[in-house]
Amino acid sequence: MNDDELTERLRRTLEDHAATVHAPDDAWERFQHLAPTPVAGARRGRWYGAGAGVLAAAAAIVVAVVVSRGSPNHSTHVAIATAPTTAPVSSAAAPNALAAPATPTTAHPPAAAALPAASGAATASTGFWPKSVTFVSPSEGWVLGSLACGVDTTCPPAMRHTVDGGRTWTAVTPPPAGLSEVRFADPEDGWAWDRVRGIWSTHDGGTTWTRVTIPGLATEASIEDLEASAGVAHVALTQDDGTVRLADTPVGSDSWVLAPITVTLGAGPVPAGQLVLQGTVGWFVQVDRTVVAGARLEGRRWMPWTPPCATVEGPATLAASSPTELVAVCDVGLWSTPQGEQLFVSHDGGTTWSAGVRIPVTSGGGEVAVASRSTIVVAGDGGLVATFDGGTTWSTVAQVTGVADFGFTTPTQGVAVVPGQSPTLVTTHDGGHTWTTVTFP
Amino acid sequence: MMSPMGLADPAPLAPAPPRFEDFYRAQYEPMLRLAYLLTRSHQAAEDLVQDSFLRVQPRWGTLDTPPAYLRRTVTNACYSWHRRRRRELATDVDPPAPADPGHDEMWDALTKLAPRRRAALVLRYYLDLSEADIADTLGCRPGTVKSLTHRGLADLREVLEP
């Protein structure tokens, strides 16, 4: 049998057997039953950037750096519109009332429109579709995305940069195509990655990007999450041997070192990991339909850790507002008897947890952001619901669903990407009480 | 530019955002077939494809090429399924399943291949993907695809012509 005969026979066999497979008529209905969110659910496990405490402490230093980077001579910054338009969100929007105050930490960008708290939905549509957001200070941040395009075409990558808290945005050189996540640790050092395409790093503010290699790692590892804090970047990776590995590097170099610890991979089909960092403390939780395993960062050493909700038959999402204040939103009983999203709180860095408090959302992915011990915002299927008293009372603060990269950069400033069919970025500058849609030039 | 009516031509409209449901309905069966060819299990294929759509759904609207992303997700899910199955088989004491009476030699030979080689052959000779697209799907370099395909065909030949 020559090569042509072999491959022809192979083709025939594959086609014959594939032809025996037919989609059941009720596949879509079954999917809808399984899906936790109606259209655009939350990406679990996305707590971005450094913790609020770190950002607040670093803000003064970073602002000084920002001034020097704001020079028009900066080669990567392409000056485009400086007077962005207002997003056509709803008649309730009052963009003129959102003029930027003097201090960037409380600025309400004019490039934004208020989101309704109880009705309507964000419909802002621009030529830029955000995918991932990161801030290194209250004023400086990046949004990785793409130029808007159709479903079967490759959308050109694009990135936007702000040095005034989101009031104005400039187009900057994006990382290579196909990367979907971005984090910066400071104005110079950042990473962009995709689960299967690997990690690229920059150490010159995004002018150049270089593929990262991690010595000792299996070639088929996929990236679960990456975060940076306290001068160190950490990444979690799933290996084909059924384990998750953690690695770290000083933010200014690509000197990645694997941590000795391995975390068990779950038996489910879709593993996902989440890293949460607060200064030199951190947590990693591995979820695969249910909570599987975890690790805790103490100093620069990852240690075994039993995450919350390990026995509730559902996934968990973590967020922290300090090295000791940690919350978990768990979809209790999702894979047995659904009991809804519940909030668990730890005041000792994840050693002990309070009993779960029911969050008034039916489902929604459980993405969570915490600004302080009392202010917690959860993404549900009916919008963002928030508590400002530590979980006793809740209210809907914005009609957006399926958020990603959800977090606070300061106790008052927060961001989230809203993927949906027309992706947008939303921000808050009043501690989560109101959220506005950013319009990119 | 002005139209004959003297009115300004409207700005070109951006393409309407595709609906996830349409995407699901268009892609479900092709992905089910792909998963079946990679797992040889109808039940596993259905579970893995549904789970893959669950994974894609939250990112809907942010993906550059949803079909390619879905294909990667399905392929990875099938690969993970093989990996877990290997671990389970290593501890299972159940006897092997009886041969499928309707089997053909080529189909049986495919099951003896390492999952990555099998995936490379299915992507190449069933989906007719280019080496670059296969590399993107498997998360490896095109050179690795060439090697996987070459070795996969060699393995098949060895099984079929011992």
Give a written overview of the molecule.
The complex is a heterodimer of chains A (441) and B (162). Chain A has 441 residues and is mainly β. Chain A has a single domain (33-438), classed as 6 Propeller (Neuraminidase). Helices cover 10% and strands 37% of the residues of chain A. Chain A has helices spanning 3-18, 27-34, 52-69, and strands at residues 77-78, 112-114, 128-135, 141-147, 157-162, 170-172, 181-184, 190-194, 198-202, 210-211, 222-229, 232-238, 243-250, 257-264, 272-278, 281-288, 290-298, 301-305, 316-320, 326-332, 340-346, 357-358, 368-370, 376-380, 383-387, 395-398, 404-408, 414-418, 424-428, 436-438. In chain A, the strands form seven sheets. A five-stranded antiparallel beta sheet of chain A has the order 1-6-5-4-3, with no helix packed on it. In chain A, strands 2-30-29-28-27 form a five-stranded antiparallel beta sheet, with no helix packed on it. Mean pLDDT of chain A is 76; it is low at 37-111 and 118-126. By secondary structure, chain B is mostly helical. Chain B has helices spanning 20-39, 42-56, 66-91, 105-111, 115-125, 131-138, 142-160. The N and C termini of chain B lie far apart (72 Å). Residues 1-14 and 90-99 of chain B have low confidence and may be disordered. Chains A and B meet through helix 1, helix 2 and strand 3 of A and helix 1, helix 2, helix 3, helix 4 and helix 5 of B.
Beta content of chain A comes to: 35-45%
Q: How are strands sequenced across the largest beta sheet of chain A?
A: 1-6-5-4-3
The helix fraction of chain B, in percent, is 55-70%
| Secondary-structure-derived class of chain B | mainly alpha
User: Low-confidence segments of chain B, ≥5 residues, pLDDT <50?
Assistant: 1-14, 90-99
Q: Briefly note the CATH topology name of chain A.
A: Neuraminidase
Q: Write down the overall mean pLDDT of chain A.
A: 76
Q: How much helix is in the residues of chain A?
A: under 10%
Work out the helix count of chain A: 3
Do you know the CATH architecture of chain A? 6 Propeller
Please tell me what the overall shape of chain B is. Answer: globular
**Helix/strand class of chain A:** mainly beta
CATH superfamily of chain A: TolB, C-terminal domain
